């Protein structure tokens, strides 16, 4: 482990190690908890004793700098005192209530979100998370248009529920492909691994838009309800779209009467250095899904921000959907406090500075010194390193969807990160640098130093 660093203002001293308590937590987990996306007997979950700010620690006294932000949701770090206090206060006042009523916390959360969403996305339907947000956005689009089909990109992740997982492009979809009809996939732009044989961003943008429009024409424009895109794809690789692409998608959707859904579940609420990533591209979608950073994951919450035209569809026609915990008071109180904290502390602006001054330059410096780094891409507190076996051919460090021995180089890289006190976000042949948006410059540099050491292990597998 690297030596502990000074505690930040949001941190408190971790409790004394208690391996016996950790063993009990682990034993109960292994006996009773069924984990997602896992072969249950092949995993070994770390027993976590606590967390504060950008760090968490286990029962053995090992502390980790969280460069994954949980699952890219702790945008303001762990245990922010103002958000914790808001949840406690709301629990004392009104811990829960049915969704059909007007509540102060729910109304204020919706107002604050609507103030920050682009254009006329002024109505908010609350869900319990991102997957449910996508489910309901697609339902809205299909009812609004009267059309059945939805187009989504291959390199994407939209959630684990039935419609959302079928819209997803990554391999987690494969075992669930029978659940929802009417999904058509297309290739979104990604110049480093261009499906269009492009050599410039301009070519990649133009060819990707031509491909999307051709797909629409051959599928039948009158059958397509929506195009859904992560504004900046997250789990699939943080591929920032080239200039003009999202504006081109907006124009194509307008021309064919198709609803444009921007999935901002991961990219929203400061992650890219803007409240929403759409601001980088000057585009207003018809529907925008959010979750994760809306309240830093402190209480489950997601939602759909809805344009005026789509809201009008349901003015006198019932929306055919609902959730028992839609707009749960504790979750909404956490959202109100989180948004207020982000505004008061300038966290969105801090994420932008972090990307421009620390993470971007630091990651590019690592790329210059490590042959295993093929590309660096990202913005704000939202970055990815594409790890390769051969820079010249761009062969990935491990094969697509590798498991077992084939994934050994990435497993060794991740183990070295943890050995050096860094908890990484690793997916396929990539590592993502996605710390809390309010991580300090010193903490970010600590993370970069740990990545530097771990990349030396990845370098051993290059040609």
Secondary-structure map with pairings?
Blueprint: H1 19-32, E1 48-52, E2 55-58, E3 63-66, H2 69-72, H3 81-93, H4 104-116, E4 123-127, H5 130-145, E5 149-153, H6 162-167, E6 183-186, H7 201-219, E7 224-230, H8 245-256, E8 259-263, H9 278-281, E9 287-290, E10 302-306, H10 308-313, H11 329-344, H12 347-369, E11 373-379, E12 382-390, E13 395-396, H13 408-419, E14 422-423, E15 425-427, E16 430-433, H14 441-459
Helix pairs in contact: 3-11, 4-11, 7-8, 12-14, 13-14
Mean pLDDT over the residues: 95
Q: Strand share of the residues?
A: 15-25%
Overall structural class, as computed from helix and strand content, comes to alpha/beta
Extract low-pLDDT stretches.
1-12
SSE run: HEEEHHHEHEHEHEHEHEEHHHEEEHEEEH
Question: How many distinct helices?
Answer: 14
Largest sheet: 7 strands, mixed
From the alpha carbons, calculate the radius of gyration and give it in angstroms: 22 Å
Helix coverage percent of residues? 25-40%
């Amino acid at each position: 482990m690297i030596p502990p660093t000074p505690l930040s203002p949001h941190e408190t001293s971790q409790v004394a190690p208690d391996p016996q308590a950790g063993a009990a937590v682990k034993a109960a987990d292994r006996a009773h908890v069924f984990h997602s996306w896992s072969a249950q007997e092949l995993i070994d979950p770390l027993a976590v004793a606590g967390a504060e700010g950008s760090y968490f620690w286990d029962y053995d006294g090992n502390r980790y700098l969280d460069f994954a932000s949980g699952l890219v949701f702790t945008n303001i770090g762990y245990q922010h005192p103002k958000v914790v206090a808001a949840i406690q206060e709301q629990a004392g006042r009104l811990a829960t209530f049915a969704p059909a009523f007007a509540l102060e916390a729910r109304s204020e959360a919706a107002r604050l979100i609507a103030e920050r969403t682009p254009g006329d996305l002024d109505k908010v339907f609350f869900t319990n998370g991102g997957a449910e947000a996508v489910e309901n956005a697609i339902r809205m689009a299909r009812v609004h248009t009267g059309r059945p089909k939805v187009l989504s990109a291959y390199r994407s992740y939209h959630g684990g529920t039935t419609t959302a997982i079928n819209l997803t492009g990554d391999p987690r979809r494969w075992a669930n492909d029978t659940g929802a009809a009417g999904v058509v996939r297309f290739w979104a732009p990604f110049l480093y691994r261009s499906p269009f044989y492009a050599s410039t961003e301009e070519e990649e943008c133009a060819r990707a838009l031509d491909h999307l429009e051709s797909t629409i024409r051959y599928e039948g424009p009158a059958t397509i309800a929506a195009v859904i895109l992560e504004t900046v794809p997250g789990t699939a690789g943080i591929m920032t779209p080239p200039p003009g692409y999202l504006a081109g998608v907006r124009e194509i959707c307008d021309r064919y009467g198709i609803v444009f859904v921007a999935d901002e579940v991961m990219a929203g609420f400061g992650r890219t250095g803007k409240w929403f990533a759409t601001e980088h591209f000057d585009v207003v979608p018809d529907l925008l899904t959010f979750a994760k950073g809306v309240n830093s994951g402190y209480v489950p919450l997601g939602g759909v921000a809805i344009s005026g035209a789509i809201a009008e569809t349901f003015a006198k026609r019932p929306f055919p959907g609902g959730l028992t915990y839609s707009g749960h008071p504790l979750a909404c109180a956490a959202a109100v406090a989180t948004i207020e904290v982000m505004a008061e502390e300038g966290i969105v602006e801090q994420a932008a500075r972090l990307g421009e001054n620390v993470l971007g330059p630091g990651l590019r410096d690592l790329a210059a010194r490590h042959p295993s780094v093929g590309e660096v891409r990202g913005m704000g507190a939202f970055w990815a390193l594409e790890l390769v076996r051969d820079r010249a051919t761009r062969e990935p460090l491990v094969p697509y969807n590798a498991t077992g021995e084939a994934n050994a180089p990435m497993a060794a890289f991740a183990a070295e990160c943890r050995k050096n006190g860094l908890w990484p976000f690793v997916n396929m042949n990539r590592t993502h640098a996605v710390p809390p948006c309010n991580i300090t410059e010193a903490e970010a540099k600590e993370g970069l130093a740990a990545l530097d050491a771990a990349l030396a292990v990845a370098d051993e597998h290059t040609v």
